[in-house]
Amino acid sequence: MRDVIISGIGMTAFGKFMDRNLKSLSEEAVSLALADAGIAPAQVDQVIFGNAAAGVVTGQEMIRAQSSLRNTGLDGVPMFNVENACASSSSAFHLGWLMIASGQAECVLVMGSEKLTHEDKAVSFGAFSRAVDLEEPLPEGYQAGSGSLFMDLYAVKARKWLEKTGGAPEDFGRVVVKSRHAGSLNPVAQFRKETTLDEVMASRMISDPLTLFMCSSIGDGAAAIVLTSPEFAKKLDTPDIRVRASAVVSAKAHGERDLVAVIASRKAYEMSGIGPEDLDVIELHDASAPAELIHYENLGLCAPGGAIEMIRNGDTAIGGRVPVNPSGGLLSRGHPIGATGAGQIIELVQHLRGTAGARQRDGAKVALAENNGGQLAGDSAVAVVTILSL
After folding, report:
1. Does the annotation mark 86 as catalytic?
2. Which of 142, 91, 147, 139 is nearest to 123 (CA)?
3. Exposed, middle or buried by CB within 10 Å (0-12, 13-18, 19+), for 257?
4. CATH code of the domain occupying 5-120+219-243
5. Using CA atoms, how far apart are residues 273 and 162, in angstroms rounded to an integer?
6. How far apart are CA 98 and CA 120, in angstroms?
7. Which CATH architecture has domain 146-215+245-389?
8. Which of 19, 157, 264, 375 would staple 249 via disulfide (CB 3.0–4.6 Å)?
9. DSSP letter string over 138-151?
10. Torsion over CA: 209, 211, 214, 216 (sign)
11. Which of these is catalytic: 86, 107, 215, 302?
12. Residue range 339-379, pLDDT digits in tens
């Protein structure tokens, strides 16, 4: 297996764009990524296209890549469509990485694109509700009523976390305050206005204990990444960012098991020879505020129960010991589900390049992204962990 280099990145703003479609979003991200790498469409060997919900929201099925990219100059290039819940584009990244690492391609375009907004919000929420095993009973303690299946599921986990750790709902609020501050510094974030803890706690209750600000929003967006071999990268005028590890894990439905995020991170650490103590900056899957705190422990950033101290001390804020979600994360940068994983990786590349502006982690050399999606057997159905370095 040979090294894989990230040679180009490009992403749209994330937000609610009723007047845009998958083609428009995809075309913008592709154009930016190819320009950043300094290559032409004809130099791309393969395209891996991540999208989760077009079939439900827009009706476009089966040829989402081919239809979305037909006007980009990439028509005729082999294209593969990847649907893997909220981990669609990080899964696409994994496959692109394998193509380069195995010597089957020299230049691969990986992208995620999602159009979630719809004039009927029930259509958008309906897309999320299909990311579970529809024949599986809902977990004990589940209480419907928010209109969002996944926020009700996250609320179950949040209540269990509070009981287990002795934390407080205000700790979830502190995640949001941190997130909104980061989003205010990110020109492509969906939410760019800072908030206070009082405002977070006073926002409308969605699913106890989750208030509105503690829940990621529906949004649209696209993100594209150019992966190359080291030989191809030598011809380009871009910094060499190495992919040190990419690990994908699906949930185990039977028997004893660890959480998929735990297993995926362990695999990535072993593959790269890098541990959590070596990380300079992290993007993780905060589809709800409690998820961020839960993942501190899953990724080995703290001992069991240590997440409370990390968030209260500001350890994971911009300028903290190990910044987490300096992009604003899903809560503030936005969560157009098929584009989220690629968007996380692009944020980390900016930090490693030293181009993240006011969000910059000084001296960043090693970065990790954790992206998960779906629900199965009480866990996320899939988790993807990616580690990058200079």
Report:
1. yes
2. 147
3. middle
4. 3.40.47.10
5. 34
6. 39
7. 3-Layer(aba) Sandwich (3.40)
8. 264
9. PPTT----SS-HHH
10. positive
11. 86
12. 999 999 999 999 999 999 999 999 999 999 999 999 999 99
Q: Which tokens sit at 53?
A: 């919900």
Assess whether 335 carries a catalytic annotation: yes
Helices 260-272 & 289-298, crossing angle to 10 degrees? 50
Q: What is the DSSP string of 154-193?
A: HHHHHHHHHHHH---HHHHHHHHHHHHHHHHT-TT-S---
Q: pTM (2 decimals)?
A: 0.97
226 forms bridges with which residues in the sheet? 8, 109
pLDDT tens-place string over residues 147-198: 899 999 999 999 999 999 999 999 999 999 999 999 999 999 999 999 999 9
Query: Do 146-215+245-389 and 5-120+219-243 fall under one CATH topology?
Result: yes
Element (H, E) at 384: strand 382-389
> What residues does 110 pair with on adjacent strands?
48, 225
Q: Could you say which of 94, 118, 295, 335 is catalytic?
A: 335
